[in-house]
Amino acid sequence: MDLTEIDSFDISADHLRKVVALTGAGISAESGVPTFRGEGGMWRQHRPEELATPQAFASNPQMVWEWYLYRRQIIAQSNPNAGHDALVELEKVLKDRFILITQNVDGLHRRAGHKNPIELHGNIFLNRCNSCSERYPDDTLDFDKLPPLCLNCQGQIRPDVVWFGEGLNHVTIEDAFLHSQQATLFLSIGTSAVVHPAAALPVVAKDSGALLVEINPDRTPITSLADAVFTDSSAQVLPDLVNKIKQIETKSKN
Ligand code: APR
């Protein structure tokens, strides 16, 4: 696949009938949130099966909580970047013809102003009981003693995220597949595209006729499938790409 320049990237108003973006940890890298794999990735320092699994939580809930509180701290100190902002702009332009699906649990799309991203893997700032699923806002919990315990059933409270080996919320993932099937343009942004089921979404979109665009400095399993590949960072590519989309949209209305 040849690398694409924005100027030579050939899209038309027809591709803008339904635009779906899937984001991964790479979009938040320039906000200072470490990715999971690749250069400086978190999984390079921690084995996922030691921290982000139900088994890890069962055997050492305190260690798992400490790791999540450490990640929360990094995220709380960071801000959305130009990539997140560009996707908010895209939502303003295309309105309900734009769907944002994210694997990120950092909430940065919401903080940037995105109304309703589909958060496939949950949100690191939400908590729920591991036994009865009761949800707990942060201000009702005491994090001095880990794990916090459920007021209803004394079960252990956990971060409301999806761990390895756990299923995704079935309504959420069905929604994501449906939107991907309907996409006329699908943007795969800053994801290594190896964790399923999210990794199947670009493939489903392409098989259903979407133009597939990848934004990632590194090659991934979907690079060879993509119709266009941008290898600059998402904070560099997305503002230009969204500007181009805006121009096409404006022209098609005149
Ligand atoms: N712009 C675009 N892409 C980038 C940037 C950047 N500035 N920096 C890094 N990347 C790319 C990397 O090349 C890599 O392919 O982002 C990707 C990040 O990949 P992962 O760390 O594997 O993150 P992700 O694909 O979101 O992981 C999926 O795995 O660990 C689980 O639940 C976790 O949601 C996560 C899932």
From TrEMBL:
Required cofactor(s): Zn(2+)
Residues that hold substrate according to the record: Y68, R71
Keywords on record: Cytoplasm, Metal-binding, NAD, Transferase, Zinc
Span of the signal peptide: none
Function per UniProt: NAD-dependent lysine deacetylase and desuccinylase that specifically removes acetyl and succinyl groups on target proteins. Modulates the activities of several proteins which are inactive in their acylated form.
Alphabetized HAMAP family for the sequence: Sirtuin_ClassIII (MF_01121)
Xref: PANTHER family: NAD-DEPENDENT PROTEIN DEACYLASE, NAD-DEPENDENT PROTEIN DEACYLASE SIRTUIN-5, MITOCHONDRIAL-RELATED
Protein name per the record: NAD-dependent protein deacylase
